[in-house]
Specification:
With 126 residues, the protein is an all-alpha fold. The protein has a domain of 62 residues. It contains five helices and no strands. Helix 2 packs antiparallel against helix 3 and helix 3 runs antiparallel to helix 5. The relative contact order is 0.09. The mean pLDDT is 81.
Length: 126
């Protein structure tokens, strides 16, 4: 997290003098690495669910989470954010919809996790 903040500030204020309007490290840490992490999580969770747990119905939550996360990234990276801002006289932009889709995606991952785990905690009587 700290390196992303440093690279962002360096790019904005040219602290080190080595950037000319773009930063490959910042691109990697904010776009490429999260995409690889999401795909790796999806692959590993599918392997665990299919081979060990055999709870195939829970895969629908992971699939929906992937779709909403991809939609969120498409809104941010495409020109949709600018079109939304122009259409609403700059009152809202695509970031709001992107954040809402990210929230839905995280909620679906939580729902997936609750469907594949046993909820035995909290059942004890004192």
């Amino acid at each position: 997290m700290g390196i992303v903040v440093f690279l962002s500030l360096d790019l904005a204020w040219n602290i080190t003098g080595h950037h000319h309007g773009h930063s490959a490290g910042l691109f990697f840490l904010t776009l490429v690495f999260p995409a690889v992490a999401v795909l790796l999580y999806l692959i590993l969770s599918c392997i665990v669910v299919c081979r060990k747990l055999e709870v195939y119905s829970s895969l629908k939550y992971v699939t929906m989470a992937l779709v909403t996360f991809a939609g969120s990234q498409l809104i941010l990276l495409s020109g949709a954010s600018h079109k939304i801002a122009v259409g609403t006289q700059e009152h809202i932009n695509g970031s709001m919809f992107s954040i809402l889709l990210d929230l839905v995606s995280v909620s679906l991952v939580y729902k997936f996790w609750t469907t594949i785990t046993d909820d035995t905690w909290g059942d004890e009587e004192f």
